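Quick question: what would this complex look like in 3D?
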Amino acid sequence: MQTKWRYTIPWHIVFLLFITTLLFPILFAIGSSFRPLEEAYNDVLNFIPWNPTLENYRIFFGSMDVIQITFNTFLIASCVTLFKVCTSFLAAYAFVFLKFKGKDVLYFLFIATIFIPFSVTMIPNYLVISDIGLSDHLVGVMLPQLADAIGIFLLHQSMRTIPMSLIEVARLDNLSHRRIMKDIVLPLVKPAVTSTSIWFFILSWNEYVWPVLMLKSVEQYTLPLALQMYMSSEGGTHFTVAMAVAVVTMIIPLLLYLTFQKYIIGTFTSSGIK
Amino acid sequence: MHVSKWEGRRSYEQWKAYGLLFPSLIIFALFMIWPFFYTIYLSFFDWNMVAPTKTFVGFQNYVDVLTDPITYKVLRNTLFYIVLLLAMNLVVPYIFAFVLDLVLHRWKGFYKGAIFLPSVISLVVGSILFMWLLNPVSGPVAIVLGAFGITMPVWSKLDGWVIVGLSLITSWKVFGYNFIVLYAAVNGISREVIEAAKLDGVPLWRIFVQIVLPLSGATGIYVLIITIVQGLQYVFTPIKVLTQGGPYYGSANLIYQAYHEAFVLYRTGHSAALSILTMFIFFILLWLEFKFVERGIHYAN
């Protein structure tokens, strides 16, 4: 027992220090966002708000329509998530349970899309979406994101654990694929569907690269764009206000993660690439 | 008759499968595969994205890109990003995953949860937080270093340092996901082999190198590949928000440079040629993925 502790204590210290470093920026942002600007500016290090104020949030909410921007972010993230999970579920079901010609080629093609960097697709997508008049429109942001090979991959890994014989028996009983999906497969892979959904929602909530190309007017902005704009237009001097915007941007993903932490970590742990 | 019924059912199943794949396929075709070929097409034309006509120039864009010294600077930067991202997001989390699984016995759930947490936060948020934390004059890190008599470099204005800074910011987000995936792989290795080695008094670093690395190798390669493919795209955000590729292309990587050519300089052909070169590198990684990783997925269980 003694020797065991001698081995583990240094590593516990390493882990605790590492986690403190990782989480410090978040605590720093939350703390600073409640401090008066001059006080925070003169004493950056002491980030605990001894004289808490909501002034920074008031400035942010006064400078732009935060409700609208939050709603835009929420709407894009919800639609993208719903579509992506549905398209991924159907495709994963076909890949796992159905026999068809060209399965290997199609699977390769789907996985290959992960390897196409956005620099390759950005110009044509920008042109097409502008041509159909959807640039500077939330739908234009959503369209290219409605399917995702990562989702197909994660659900594929989860569905593979279902015994094939279960599906074969259901087919012999003349159950339709729709019924098999709804009544057999979906209940069995529900944890994976839940965590994939939350993961997609968080990814889309945080998405920056594509929206920044698409969205031009402030009333269409999403939170990450608002945060970036505030920084550049204010020249970076209103640092406590920027921290307030950062807190508003990260609060939803953080709450979702803290609520569904076990699901999310569980799915990535059992996605089973061995 | 029996056979034909079976045949009929098989072809019905086939069409059903194509039907289920159709929604994903149409999105991929419209927004991934078609754009890929259109970008190849654009790489042979001189265009500025607004002019009504494109001028065919053959391989001139590729010649321009390959003779431009900035391209080589960007390539060197990209390579430096890859090395740093791999060190911070493959080597370190691999060791951490090994230690958490085989050395530590308490607080595993807490450690996993806390280490993953930054992965759910926007990189724009990360960029802005670190811009303040790593401010070389008034930031907390500079103040603490100053107390030890160390002057912090003005990292965002210096070649090399700027890439270190931006890689650190990106790693803050990427680390947790990679850590969890690697932890799962290490955790999936049969306990008997490791326990036997431990009983024989094999030192931990040898257990790591000779048992854990080979037995979790497919995941290791998977994490290596996604760290390069997604890492280089993730870095785009801090580059765009904090340095815009500066100082003088000192922080631009291939992806950012393609964006810069297209949406700042309006040289569509150059951007497309650069993207196609990037694609070549990524295709080598795709080949690796199918050679070493997907095979494991199909036949492991």
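Answer marked as accepted. Chain A has a mean pLDDT of 88.
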